Amino acid sequence: MRAKVLNRQAYRLATTGIFAGSPYPKGVVEVNLNFAEISYRQGNFETALAQAVRIVEDCKNHGYTEMHCRSLALVGIAALRLGRAADALAHLLRALELSEQTANLECQAIVLNCIAIVHTNVGAHQKALYYFHTCRQLYQRIGDTDGSARALLNLCMSYKDLGDYESALHYGLQSLALLQNTCLIADQLMAHVNLGNVWVALHRNDKAIAHFQTASNLARLSNDKFTLGYLALNLARIYLTLGQFSSAENNAHTALILAETSKQQGAQFEAHELLATIYKASHEFARALWHYERFHAIKEEVFNREAEKKYQLLEVQHQTKVAQKEATILQNKNQALEAEIAERKRIEQELIVAKDAAEQAGKVKDDFLSLMSHELRTPLNTMLGFAQLLALDSTLKAGQREHLAVIEQNGEHLLQLINNILALTKAAAGKESAQISNFDLYLLLHELKKMFSLKATDKEIQLIFTIAAETPQHLFSDKLKLRQILINLIGNAIKFTEQGVVRVAVRWLVDYEPYPPSEQLFDLAIDQQQRLLEFEVSDTGPGITVQERQQLFKKFAQGSAGKNIPEGTGLGLAISQNYVHLLGGDIVVHPGSDGGATVRFFIPYSVAEPAIQSLAAEKLPNQELVYSADTLPLEQRPTERAIIPQHRGPPSF
Predict the structure, then answer these.
(1) Is the distance from CB of 119 to CB of 131 less than 8 angstroms?
(2) Are 95 and 72 in contact (CB under 8 A)?
(3) Is the pTM value of this prediction over 0.70?
(4) Do 474 and 510 touch, CB atoms closer than 8 A?
(5) I want to staple 51 with a disulfide (CB 3.0 to 4.6 A). Which of 36, 119, 402, 563 is the partner?
(6) Partners of residue 475 on adjacent β-strands
(7) What Å distances lie between residue 161 and 198, 201, 270, 461, 588, CA to CA?
């Protein structure tokens, strides 16, 4: 208790003195280590272990090598006391390594002694002897008599455990000789006890009695009742062997009283058994019977308690095995799951690589098609221009005109195909974007009507354009893409209509209900400045089936009617859908009310102010428009400009 008080005073001094500025002052760590050692000596092994573990980390972080070694040794012996031999040995070997690095012989000797004790507890007596001998040599080198005496005493006990009583006697007497002039009463007591046991093994009862009696006096002096009872039992057994029943009885009764006082049942039933044997040998059978009954009663109680402990231990072991089995199953599942996740990641990585490769291949293809389309379109336009100029020559014969018509017809078909491919490749490459501008919607419709009137007249079908009331004339949108959408849809309608009418209707919408609601819904972003413009192109052609409607917007897809027309490529509707989506709208196809098919598309728009050049048109609601405007200027490419002078004179071949 006095040591604990002094250490608390030292702790206050360390934390308020010259070390107070440091987060882990050396003085504080040393006092904490003293506290841990006191806890160990008082038998608080769990507390000592926890404290020592914290001190190990502090010493490791701040380079306090000597205290690091001491704290590791304390962790080792505390773990040994708690039955954790493997942990104890690991920490002690680390402590030994540190002490050897610092050449601290005293610390080495202490750690070697602890390592030898660990090997003794696990039954490795030969290894224990090696470490005890090394420990003794170190104590002799540094001149530590007390340490040498303890090392000799440990050698005595180890040789006794191995049955080498002569060696045990040799080292025990040397240890006792060193301890005689010291104040180490506990070590003197242990030396006399071990020498007494050695003399008993050598059948020298007189010497054994002398050592046990001296040990008893030392045990009384230190108030060690447990050891005193143990010695009394040993003396009683020796006196019984010698036939001195009275002395045997007195010592056995002393052992019984001490065992009952300290409530040590193991020592009680040993004392009762010894007393029964003594009374039986001295023919006092009644007393012998009573002690035998007490012996069996206590033994049965101890046995039942031990049996209960064993049952609880078995129950814990069973639960542990069940838990381990469940843990193994869970671990296997986790491993399988990890393997599955790894496989999925591998597949995902392969898919990413394949996707990148496919995108790269697609990009190369699109670049090639775009380049080739540009390279082919320029000379083709020139060829078509000259073919049209040749057709104006009045001196041409009928056969020549037919040949020129074939050239022009097939050239236009090829040009349309090239334009479609170019549009698709630009959309696939993400290079297509809306070019918003201010334009005249009526003028655009007028141009389209003039463009397709000749084809409609040749097929003897009606081509009717209508615009609903209040449809704005000037818009903000992409004129070129809207024009191409309408060209594709009107061209398809005329191409598939053999008789009847093709109608083009335009109207603006505020409240929009998609058609048909059960098949297609649109979510068009329309703010306060935007409205929805609806275009409808209908015909009286052969119409389309439900199955064909699901395929119409795919590239190169054609209905049954389209497959019978050689000019069809199956790209017009796909391009139209791309352009409609690019403008923020959507497109649907459904059967017409009078047969044929109806294509409707919707785009958002903003109302614009009139541009400088505008079409003066009279708009009648739901009636065909009457236009008064001339054609627009010709394109200004070099090859096409070359055609214009040729138009003023007769063409020549």
Answers:
(1) yes
(2) yes
(3) no
(4) no
(5) 36
(6) 439, 607
(7) 10, 11, 22, 123, 100
Between 25-34, 122-131, 420-429, 598-607, the lowest mean confidence (pLDDT) is in 420-429
Per the CB < 8 A criterion, the answer to whether 536 and 504 are in contact is: yes
Distances (CA, A) of 25 to 53, 67, 70, 351, 575: 17, 13, 17, 60, 81
317 Cβ contact partners less than 8 Å away, ≥ 6 residues apart: none
Cβ atoms 79, 90 nearer than 8 A: no
Arithmetic mean of pLDDT over the chain: 77
Q: What is the mean pLDDT of residues 403-414?
A: 76
Taking the C-alpha atoms of residue 525 and residue 521, their distance in angstroms, rounded to an integer, is 13
Q: Which residue has the tokens 């027309």?
A: 565
Q: Looking at beta carbons, which pairs linking 364-372 to residues 24 or more positions away fall under 8 Å? A: 365/425, 366/425, 366/426, 366/428, 366/429, 367/425, 367/429, 369/421, 369/422, 369/425, 370/422, 370/425, 370/426, 370/429
Q: Are 495 and 413 a contacting pair, CB within 8 Å?
A: no
pLDDT tens digit string along 238-251? Answer: 988 888 988 888 98
Length of the chain: 653
- Please tell me which of 24-38, 232-246, 524-538 the model is most confident about, judged by mean pLDDT: 232-246
